[in-house]
Amino acid sequence: MPLLKTIGASQPLCDAGGRGKLGVRHQAATHRAGADLERVYTIEGVRCGDDENPIMLPTDLDLIEQKVKSVNAQLLVIDPLNEHIAAGIDTHKDTEMRMVTRRLKQLAERTGAAVLILRHPNKGAVDRLFIAAEERSL
């Protein structure tokens, strides 16, 4: 996570990775980058009664924004993006993805936090044109 070097040890980070606490590998990389792990927060999911559901975009952006504001996060990491896209949104369609990215941009403007979106291309996809087409929607 080399980007963490730019935020310094004193800046809070919000990770909307939906996996709970940072894993050992991510903790080590975050620590090596100089971040204070006490200032790294995760958004694990959205509680609905007794159930906990994963964060979905753009549906849960208001909740994410509340968390970013409450901890004064300077960086929001969404990892991986496709795991958090709400049902019914086609990630291959520019207009549908612009709805998500526009809302993330607005969140960044209101909170002052940078937003880092991570994608993990299909490991089996060797067709560079297919990967480029997927990335174009972002």
Strand order of the largest sheet: 2-1-5-6
CATH fold-level assignment: Rossmann fold
Q: Helical region count?
A: 5
Structural class: alpha/beta
Uncertain segments? 1-10
Q: Give the domain tally.
A: 1
Strand content: 5-15%
Largest sheet: 4 strands, parallel
> What is the CA-CA span between the terminal residues?
21 Å
Bulk shape = globular
Helix content: 25-40%
Gyration radius (Cα, Å) is 15 Å
CATH architectural designation: 3-Layer(aba) Sandwich
Average pLDDT: 74
Give me the strand/helix succession: HEHEEEHEHEH
Number of strands: 6
Write the layout of secondary structure elements.
Elements: H1 4-7, E1 13-15, H2 24-32, E2 40-42, E3 46-48, E4 51-53, H3 61-71, E5 75-78, H4 94-111, E6 114-117, H5 128-136
Parallel strand pairs: 1-2, 1-5, 5-6
Antiparallel strand pairs: 3-4
Q: Would you kindly provide a written description of the structure presented here, covering whatever features stand out?
A:
The protein has 138 residues and is of the alpha/beta class. It has a single domain (4-136), classed as Rossmann fold (3-Layer(aba) Sandwich), CATH 3.40.50. It has helices at residues 4-7, 24-32, 61-71, 94-111, 128-136, and strands spanning 13-15, 40-42, 46-48, 51-53, 75-78, 114-117. It has a four-stranded parallel sheet, with helices on one face. A two-stranded antiparallel sheet has the order 3-4. Helix 3 packs parallel to helix 4 (94-111). The two termini are 21 Å apart. Mean pLDDT is 74; it is low at 1-10.
